[in-house]
Amino acid sequence: MSHGWNSNSHGFNEIEEAVRRAMNAGIYVVTACHHLHYIYDFYGLGRSPDKDPNMISSYGYPMWVKNDWMFEFPDRILTPMDSLTVASPVGTDVYTFYREGGESWTIPYLASVYALAYQVNPNITPQIFEDIMYNTAIPIEREWNNIINPIGKVINPTGIVDYLEDSLNNLDTIAPTVTINNPITNNIYRWIIPYLNL
After folding, report:
1. How far apart, in whole angstroms, are the C-alpha atoms of residue 196 and residue 198?
2. Which pLDDT tens digit goes with each residue over 151-162?
3. Mapping DSSP to helix (H, G, I), strand (E, B) and coil, where does residue 85 land?
4. Secondary structure (3-state) at 166
5. 70: which of 1, 150, 170, 171 lies 20 to 30 Å off by Cα?
6. In this structure, are strands 147-154 and 138-144 parallel, antiparallel, or unpaired?
7. 62 and 46 Cβ atoms separated by less than 8 Å
8. 113 phi/psi in degrees, rounded to 5
9. Backbone φ, ψ for residue 137 (5° rounding)
10. Predicted model pTM
11. Buried b vs exposed e over 156-182: b needs ≥16 C-beta within 10 Å?
């Protein structure tokens, strides 16, 4: 749900109850209030349009960031957000490029990765998914004002799917916790959900 709320929002109790019921039913509920319901939070990354979307080194601070202190989330999961080409609302065969995104842009991406994980192993739960997501994510850092800052961990859809496939091949089960070494690297990064670069 690409929307957030707080205790002052109209319908707060009703939406919180709906989220609780869905979570109790085993549904992975992805909203702009993710931090209220799960251990890990997430946000989006920026990318200049001339940078390769398949290179992790192409990603950094979102467009709206003006100061480095505004974007230091070393424990957050980060997904692509700026410079997206998406299906247009004006036609079935038309695409639109958006230079700047927002938090709501990260929600369908995260939900899509969960759908991929579920296709690999339908026994996955939201908690197991989040553990695997966090432990396979790739830490990145960027320079701002001559200071190197850790800005978070980039979601690694390939790593998630690979882990799930390995667990199926080896044990046919999913371990509730996962420990994977995450190299800090700017090597080629294979996104499972590709961008449409038209």
Report:
1. 6
2. 788 999 999 999
3. strand
4. helix
5. 1
6. antiparallel
7. yes
8. -65, -40
9. -65, 155
10. 0.76
11. bbebbbbbbeebeeeeeebeeebeeee
